[in-house]
Amino acid sequence: MYYIDYHTHTLLSPDGNAPLSAMAEAAVAAGLSQLCVTDHYDRIMEHGGIAPDYDWGPALEQFRAALPAFRDKLVLRFGIEYGSAPFDPDYARRMLSQPELDFVIGSLHNMSPEQGGEDFYFLSYDRPETCYAALDDYFASMLRLVELPETYDILGHIIYPLRYMPPEIRLDRYQDAIDTVLRRVVETGRGIELNTYCGKTIEPWRPILERYRDCGGELITVGSDAHYPERVGLGLPEAYALLRDTGFRYVTVYDKHIPTQMAL
Ligand SMILES: [Zn+2]
Ligand SMILES: [Zn+2]
């Protein structure tokens, strides 16, 4: 099986813990064929406001230093998880023109600046109205993000805020928005990811995957969102089984933003 983990964080992410070399060792031990490092950069800070510009230096240095040791064991790719592109698209274009980049996950972790810009992680979800207000804003931002296909290769964890919400919160009322998002992803030659959230989120992806297939979606990556070496690759077998079950025959890998389909 050609296992890939295309969503992983190292200590260069604010909430990361280990160097890339440790994440790559874990990937080899887990039997992965490819590992893409996708440290965070969010244009909006955790509690709102524009973040300082990104310095590519440490990420490039870490990536280049790790490459030789894994040359015969693992394909390593250089990516980034870029958050909040719609709120400053010019900066996103400028920053993401970095020529060594293989892959960009376009994510939304924050409320829009108009709604305060708070990271979804910090909001309180004890009332359904609060959950749906956050989701209204989230999908409105996602509709803006898919009109900026030059700022991402695949759309990050589409169902992200559900991680923090009670299980009774449903996405049914966002079906039209989600369909529009998925159609635009396909029309612009972009893809989506199945983010296993370290193996905790597999089945909730089923309706998204089915709609994406209905829209003609083919390009899809799989990622664990691991922030620790012991979590690299968690949920991949289950994710691959779900992909096969929903009609996918390939996972996608990227080299300098160029997608290649690998048989499942
Ligand atoms: Zn994320
Ligand atoms: Zn992430």
Description of the structure:
This protein is an alpha/beta fold and 264 residues long. Helix content is 31%, strand content 19%. The protein contains seven helices and nine strands; from the N terminus they run βαβαβαβαβαβαβαββ. Strands 1-2-3-4-5-6-7 form a seven-stranded parallel sheet. The chain has a two-stranded antiparallel sheet with strand order 8-9. A hairpin with a 2-residue loop joins strand 8 and strand 9. The radius of gyration is 17 Å and the shape is globular. The termini are close together. The model has no long low-confidence stretch (mean pLDDT 97). Bound molecules: zinc ion (2 copies). One zinc ion is lined by residues 7, 9, 81, 225. Residues 81, 107, 109, 156-157 line the site of one zinc ion.
Which short descriptors sum up this protein?
9 strands; seven-stranded parallel beta sheet; 264 residues; binds zinc ion; two-stranded antiparallel sheet; alpha/beta
What sequence of helices (H) and strands (E) makes up the elements? EHEHEHEHEHEHEHEE
Biggest sheet, spatial arrangement of strands: 1-2-3-4-5-6-7
End-to-end distance: 7 Å
Unreliable stretches (pLDDT < 50, length at least 5) are none
Ligands bound to this protein structure:
zinc ion
Largest sheet: 7 strands, parallel
Q: Compute the gyration radius: what is it? A: 17 Å
Secondary structure: number of strands = 9
**Backbone structural class:** alpha/beta
Average predicted local confidence, pLDDT = 97
Shape: globular
How many distinct helices?
Answer: 7
Helix content: 25-40%
- Give the amount of beta strand, in percent: 15-25%
